[in-house]
TrEMBL record:
Gene3D superfamilies: Ribonuclease P, Pop5 subunit (3.30.70.3250). Residues 52-93 are annotated as: Disordered. Signal peptide: none annotated. Residues 83-93 have a biased composition (Polar residues). GO terms for cellular component: multimeric ribonuclease P complex; nucleolus. The keyword NADP does not apply. The keyword Transmembrane does not apply. GO terms for biological process: tRNA 5'-leader removal. This is Ribonucleases P/MRP subunit Pop8-like domain-containing protein.
Amino acid sequence: MPVSSQEQISGIISNQIDFQSQISQQAGRKGCLDEFVPEVRASLHDELQATMSAASPAKRDRSPSQPSLDATHPSKKPLHATPTASKPPSGTKFTVSGFPFQYLRLRLVTADDHSFDELHFRNAINHALREAFGIVGAGHHVDLLKFDQSGQEGLIRTPYDSGPTLRAALTLLREYQSKELRIDVLDCSPYLFTVAHNSRNWAP
């Protein structure tokens, strides 16, 4: 294990003190001790200078190898760190829907050309939801906006998320009040104007 500069200096001083005590014991008088004291001081001064000069380059050599502040404290962030935008993981899909409602234009067709009124037309839609999906299906909200009894066509509105469930229930409907019938979806759109007016059927 290497000896530090302070330990070397302490060893030199203790050696000089032992040397002085040996001289004082052998001389036995103050005059003899005074003759050797300047030589001891000069020798001590030279050895201290040599030790300090040898320790100075060692300090200079060790200073570049000291780890930096960032290496000793990797958890600390710089004061002026530039924020980075977080990116979504690859393969993630986002579905954005800004439509609150879905509008459907329906036509009711019976086997014996029976004509239903507005109330029965609405009940037939609720019956289709209940038969296909039970009480949960009957809980879907449906508004009848317009009904043409002569053509057995109606315009309904439902929440956008309920659209697929409603279309599935209408497709599975085969009977209502012991009468065979079906409900055809003529048009479907999140915009009311698209299903309310069709330019293909418009006549001047």
